[in-house]
Amino acid sequence: MRVCVIGTGYVGLVTGASLAHIGHHVICVDNNEEKVKLMKAGQSPIYEPGLSDIMQSASSSGNLEFTTDLGAGVAHGEILFIAVGTPPLPTGESDTRYVEAVARGIGSHLDNSYKVIVNKSTVPIGSGDWVRMIVLDGVSERQKSLVAAGDVGVEEKFGEFTAQFDVVSNPEFLREGSAVYDTFNPDRIVLGSTNPKAIAMMQELYAPIVERKVAEDQSLPPVPVVVTDINSAEMIKYAANAFLATKISFINEVANICDRVGADVTQVAKGIGLDSRIGNKFLQAGIGWGGSCFPKDVSALIHTAEDYGYDAQLMKAAVTVNQRQRLIALEKLQQVLKILKGKTVGLLGLTFKPDTDDMRDAPALMLIEQLNRLGAKVKAFDPIVSSTGMRHGLTGVFVETDPERLADGCDALVLVTDWQQFRNLDFAKMAKLMNNPVMIDGRNFLDRKEVENAGFQYVGVGR
Length: 463
What we know:
By secondary structure, the chain is of the alpha/beta class. It has helices at residues 10-21, 33-40, 51-60, 70-76, 97-109, 127-148, 154-158, 179-184, 196-210, 230-261, 265-273, 294-307, 313-325, 328-337, 363-373, 383-388, 403-407, 427-433, 448-453; strands spanning 2-6, 25-29, 64-67, 79-82, 115-119, 165-169, 189-192, 225-228, 344-348, 377-381, 398-399, 412-415, 438-441, 457-459.
């Protein structure tokens, strides 16, 4: 099928490259010329395992193209994905101006052929009709501009013209760091529309994925496809992220109680996770959640509830617990070191989670800010940040090039991001380089006995 993906952030680029990889002809559109040049050269502008490989393979086969020309993309695609960002506003609601601009742009380039316009961006509930309205506004504005320009053939061009399109909600459930894997091995695919033709085209698009032809385990049964109305599809996305965020905040609250009564939250999580009604995922206690999805989506859902006269108290509590949890590492440093002023603290990891270069709402940022406020010197090592030299938004921290340089002269280390390579550090060598070998394991990720045998004082969360 012919596909156009507008926006090449995490969701757009992974979606476009993956659909091209399974045989569709995809044109990805972005208004950033430098970014498009980079992608045309086969390079990914983001760090995501496996993405560069499928980009290069799909580009070589001719299935994946990149352009800044929205008109060319709209003309090409039977299915048009809107995959631009919807960042949070100070109020908590989503900023939909980029979605609006794209929808208006699509309308200004529509022809007489039928199109399926897919909301892949996470948009406020009820955006399906809104996007349709904006697309039609784009059609109308093009007609008016042609008339104003004196195009004598405009009535002939548009006299019989009727925009033929349907809007479908197709929310993404990708995890940064495993987005390519998640695309080919989804738990479910959600399609929101009441038009059978649009649903049929989306099912054809996803057929190779649904039938597990590109799955890691091709013997599994077909991927469940949930077909619903647009509003419910949009709510599914928000509800899923709000539930997962609440589950993490719950186990963090349990961890804080465990610290006070002498229980071990890792054992508690194992015990409750074996209950099939609960499950063991997202029960890892630590210093809280961050990133581009959970904070934004939970806040947006709270804001939507308020717009319709409901006080979402449980979700507000999940956010409050998470904000407090980010300071747990700071409290533990104060318990061990007492006064932090004049001390040097090293952070293992900066990104909000492993296998990504994303620093959006990373817990490390608040920790750096608070350590600076208390007069501590802050150093950090992160496998991606240190190797790429990216420093955007990072102030008050000196980024080291390897773990040993990080440990040198530190009074304590805090594991902030659970990168897999942090399990295999030379802890004995690092301990000898430190002024005071203390390890605050902010993710309960390390082997406690191994770290203690290497000479560290180990402090976990809820342990």
